[in-house]
Amino acid sequence: MKCYTIWQNGDHRWLAFAQDPERPDNVIDTNQLAVVAGDCAMLLDPGGGELFPAMMAALTQEVPVSRIKHLFLSHQDPDVASALPLWRQVCGDDLTVHISWMWAGFVSHFDSHATFATIPDAGTEIALAPNVLVRLLPAHYLHSPGCFSVYDPKAKVLFSGDIGAALVPRERAGDIYVTDFDEHIHYMDAFHRRWMGARMARDKWVAMVRRLDVEVLAPQHGLFFKGEQVGRFLDWLEALPLGSGLEAYDQAMAKL
Amino acid sequence: MPGRASVVHVHFAGGKYIGFDKITYGCYSPKKQKYGKTVIGYQGTVWHDSARVHGGTVNTLYERCQAAYHAFDGLPKLVDHLRILAVNAELASARAGDHGRAVRVLTQFAVECVTRLMGLVPELVGLKKRTYGVAGGILRAASDIAKLEAAGARMATLGNAKESLMVLDGAWRARLAELAASVVQLARTHEGLVAIAKAAREVMLQTEIISANIAIESTSAGPFEPELRAIADTMRGRVDELRAMIDGASRALRDAAESNQALAAFGAAGR
Questions:
Q1: CATH 3.40.630.40 describes domain A2-253
Q2: How far is residue A222's CA from residue A18's CA, in Å, rounded to a whole number?
Q3: pLDDT over 90 (residue A141)
Q4: Separation of alpha carbons B124 and B47, rounded Å
């Protein structure tokens, strides 16, 4: 698994772990991020159980596992949270697992012994170091009804979960950043049309993100948007018709 | 496909990880060799390798537990058939009057056998539920151990993560200890099932004797001989079904005991 340093200032770093060459084809590709601030590290969407060995090996090249104090789960999906029991086994007792209040009981099916710091709907802030604070911002209904993005005002990095996700073929995934936005649309268009079903939520999320100073927008799948590509992505998302699965209702009703 | 490979020798002292040596081979044969806790594969190295070695045992154990319970799947139906048969025997012996007096006594014993067999059914259901719960836990633990070992193998190969590797080793040992505890629980449910199989065999032998005696008594039942003989023959048929059931379960239980012992050794590897 490759490790990319997205941003660094002293001991405050944003790391992305992605593009595992040994990932089986039937397991969806995911990006795992880590925010490191001094002796404290926070893993963002640490990934599914199948990915744990590769992720653990790659992460510990950069950060000793004893420094992981926070696990953030943007939502409840297995590619986000199913490795939770494994991370809890290797991390210390002072580990805090953050997830929407909606999902604590559901994610317990992955790990019945886990306890959670539940995130209220309006989001919250987490201090990783005295001068490093990350904001958990609502991303509800995009696609999960209890979903959060993570913003670091110092690094100007926004981890957007499934928003901006793309299913990029292995042979196309050279760099971690989008270089040709028009071509990249092909890899994220169908995903967003189908997975994102709430136009009002999309509009509110885009409006919220436009108020932030975002240099890098990092989704959980595919490539990251940097600089002007962030704006292009928001413009594209804002204009996209959502809820392609709704057509299936008409097809089913026509047969009734 | 031979290729470049590294061998990592992991060293432990007093149960604690103290370090490892890494040796890289330019060309290595796919043939695998064992070196204590480490195994060399042609694509690289592994850290602990117990999950791969014991993975088959875990799956086999689950299959054998299923097979043991599956063998008893027809027990409730068989008990019902025996119960109806006992009622029929009672009615036939009453119709036979003096000719059926001995059969009437034997029928009482048949009813007792059926009652004892019926008592085993809820016990079996409870035990089945417990076994699947424990076996599910063992499967989960084995899966976790495999992933921890895979992570360790990668970290040992990459190097530069001694502290985290020690932490991982602690997690690995803890999970193995949990697995060992689950194996003990499974051994208990296994003993419970062995006891049920033993009780069912006793009932089977008693019922077999009863059916043989009804057959003998039928010879002196005059005009009622065909009816009583038919009951004895049907009862013997059910006894044969029960015997096949118990034999199947006993085979599966013997096999499960072997898997259980192998898994107990797997769990003990963490100590």
A1: no
A2: 9
A3: yes
A4: 41
